[in-house]
């Protein structure tokens, strides 16, 4: 092959992203202006339109509820959801939209659970929960216990991103033994966060406790990178599994 032949090579044609097999996305930040996700209704509509174009039929958006930063509650999220639904309907985008929340697991959240405060769920009493990325919360297992005792089915958001879980094999095994439901970010499989996160996501998929997949969409950049998913090693494999997303 001569040097001129290099310039004649056709650019790689990327397979179009198709998420119709997933049917529903249960992790995103699409209500404008209430967390670190969409900043405006215009941006939200652009994101919703793209997600619908990928073949998704339902979006369950999950704003952060974090006592120190995002002091959302069911009322704030409910009002934002109604505004988003009206805007989506006006634009003629054919997709169902609902809302839950992504709860940060800390002392304040534990007190809410113990007091029986209203918490936002999806599906069959599933509740999406997260932690910080670096340090393990001391009350992690205690919160999971109290959620289950209260009748909830906790879903651990993007565990592949928690550095403390990478390093603590005993804790990971404890979570697996307790059958805690795990949710992987599709972006993790593209290497968007890091190769380490990608490798850990693939490991968790092999363990069998991952029952939900989510986009964790915050902005256009997330979806730009998500369109690289068809190139990922596990794309064909994840399309073959029966995810709980399809029952939402």
UniProtKB/TrEMBL annotation:
The keyword Mitochondrion does not apply. SUPFAM superfamilies: PHP domain-like. Belongs to the metallo-dependent hydrolases superfamily. CpsB/CapC family. Pfam families: CpsB_CapC (PF19567). Keywords: Hydrolase. It comes from Algoriphagus hitonicola. This is protein-tyrosine-phosphatase. Its EC number is 3.1.3.48. The lineage of its organism: Bacteria, Pseudomonadati, Bacteroidota, Cytophagia, Cytophagales. GO terms for molecular function: manganese ion binding; protein tyrosine phosphatase activity. Gene3D superfamilies: Metal-dependent hydrolases. The keyword Hydrolase applies. It catalyses: O-phospho-L-tyrosyl-[protein] + H2O = L-tyrosyl-[protein] + phosphate. InterPro entries: Caps_polysacc_synth_CpsB/CapC (IPR016667), Pol/histidinol_Pase-like (IPR016195).
């Amino acid at each position: 092959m001569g040097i001129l032949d290099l310039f004649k090579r056709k650019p790689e044609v990327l397979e179009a992203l198709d998420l119709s097999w997933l049917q529903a996305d249960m992790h995103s930040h699409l209500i404008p202006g209430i967390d670190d996700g969409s900043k405006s209704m215009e941006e939200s509509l652009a994101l919703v339109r793209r997600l619908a174009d990928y073949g998704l039929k339902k979006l369950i958006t999950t704003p952060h509820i974090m006592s120190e930063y995002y002091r959302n509650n069911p009322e704030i999220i409910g009002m934002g959801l109604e505004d988003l639904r009206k805007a989506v309907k006006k634009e003629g985008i054919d997709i169902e939209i609902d809302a839950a929340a992504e709860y940060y697991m800390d002392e304040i959240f534990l007190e809410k659970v113990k007091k029986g405060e209203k918490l936002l769920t999806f599906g069959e009493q599933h509740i999406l929960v997260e932690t910080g990325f670096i340090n393990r919360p001391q009350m992690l297992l205690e919160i999971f216990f109290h959620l289950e005792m209260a009748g909830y089915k906790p879903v651990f958001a993007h565990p592949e991103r928690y550095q403390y879980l990478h390093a603590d094999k005993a804790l990971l095994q404890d979570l697996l033994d307790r059958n805690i439901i795990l949710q992987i970010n599709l972006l993790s499989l593209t290497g968007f966060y890091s190769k380490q996160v990608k490798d850990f996501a693939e490991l968790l998929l092999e363990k069998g406790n991952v029952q939900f997949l989510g986009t964790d969409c915050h902005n256009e950049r997330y979806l730009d990178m998500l369109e690289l998913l068809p190139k990922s090693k596990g794309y064909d494999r994840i399309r073959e599994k029966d995810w709980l997303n399809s029952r939402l």
